Amino acid sequence: MSLDFSDKMAKSKNIKKLPKDIKKIGLRLRAIRKNLGYGNSDEFANKYELDRAQYGKYETGSQDFRMSSLIKILDSIGYRLSDFFNEDYDNIEI
After folding, report:
1. Contact criterion met (CB below 8 Å) for 44 and 51
2. Contact 50/75 with Cβ under 8 angstroms?
3. What is the pLDDT of residues 49-92, one digit of tens each?
4. What's this model's pTM, rounded to 2 decimal places?
5. Which CATH class for the 19-90 domain?
């Protein structure tokens, strides 16, 4: 049995649906990058030797990622998890 186009689209949307906290993490990463004086994610990723395309997806909240990836990014800029998940994070509205 094959799926019709609408079934395939529905299945595709379910796969890409990520928890809203993924978007919040991305917005928090973007705010930190901007506070550090980096105008775009490519410049930031190059400076800290991160994959540019992947990091851009993290910031937009369009890509799920492992906790180890977040820790690597935070370590590279001298942030602890407690610095990241603070009241600034809590105040992000989606």
Report:
1. no
2. no
3. 999 999 999 999 999 989 999 999 999 999 999 999 999 999 99
4. 0.80
5. mainly alpha
